[in-house]
Design goal:
mainly alpha; globular; about 110 residues
């Protein structure tokens, strides 16, 4: 049951973020579901790959670089999903970064509530 709630929270967070961030448009719930799933999996894989290469810098920054790597990895996946998912549009990389930050905050807040 927890996995289902997590998926629902991710979809709702994607829809809320698309309303709050100018430059991101999600037209259907199906597009929100696909984007949420692909960003979660793709962002995780890309983040882990980048962490392997940037470990010394992450160590020097006392782990703060991992936050930046996580947001940038997910933003890259969001920008790549722009052309591949019908009903999902991203205007620029800055919008993708803001979208990822807003999705994270909304997921955190909804996770506390539910």
């Amino acid at each position: 049951m927890g996995m289902i709630w997590s998926c629902i929270i991710s979809i709702v967070a994607a829809l809320v973020a698309s309303r709050l961030v100018s430059g991101i448009q999600i037209k259907t719930i199906t597009a929100a579901a696909v984007v949420s799933l692909v960003v979660a999996v793709g962002g995780y894989v890309l983040q882990k790959a980048l962490m392997m290469f940037l470990f010394p810098f992450n160590w020097l920054t006392l782990g703060l670089l991992s936050l930046v790597i996580g947001v940038v990895a997910k933003a890259v996946v969001v920008k790549l999903m722009d052309k591949r998912v019908n009903g999902f549009e991203v205007d620029g990389f800055g919008s993708a970064v803001m979208y990822c930050i807003v999705v994270s905050v909304v997921q955190l807040m909804l996770g506390w509530i539910f």
